[in-house]
Amino acid sequence: MNGLRFVPANEASWDDLQAILTGAAGRCQCQRQRLGDHDWWRMPESERAAILRAEAHCDDPRATETIGIVAYDGDEPVAWCAVDRRGVFGRVRGSPVPWQGRDEDPDDESVWAIACVVVRKGHRGEGLTYPLIAAAAEHARARGAAAVEGYPMLTGGKKVIWDELSVGPVGPFLAAGFREVTHPTKRRLVMRLDF
Question: Whole-prediction pTM value?
Answer without folding.
Answer: 0.93
